[in-house]
Design a protein that fits this description.
This protein is an alpha+beta fold and about 100 residues long. The chain has three helices and four strands; from the N terminus they run ααββββα.
Length: about 100
């Protein structure tokens, strides 16, 4: 959770810098424009369609109190949310989408 909060603040700060201020629409445009940061788990970008994060995913094993990366998947997009949410078509939507598992 701490890494997610850190990455969120760092991503917002990068977007505000790129936007030249904290004006909402300018920051959103910067986030949707492919802005990326490097966080503790790797590269983070914002999916313009859903405003969810695309992140690197790592499958790890803990053995003898040591973490070992077994497999990594770069820039996994939020496919479940993309199936229901499209903020490019409806930018004023504030609906909470629940995914069917």
């Amino acid at each position: 959770m701490a890494a997610s909060q850190y990455q969120t603040a760092k991503l917002w700060a990068a977007a505000a810098t790129k936007a030249g201020g904290t004006q909402r629409d300018a920051v959103i445009k910067a986030l949707e424009g492919g802005l990326a940061i490097e966080g503790p788990s790797g590269r983070i970008t914002i999916d313009p369609q859903t405003h969810h994060a695309s992140v690197d995913v790592h499958v790890m094993e803990i053995r003898d109190q040591k973490l070992q990366v077994r497999q990594s998947f770069a820039q996994r997009p939020p496919l479940d949310t993309q199936a229901k949410c499209d903020l490019r078509k409806d930018p004023d939507s504030n609906q909470q989408f629940e995914m069917d598992l």
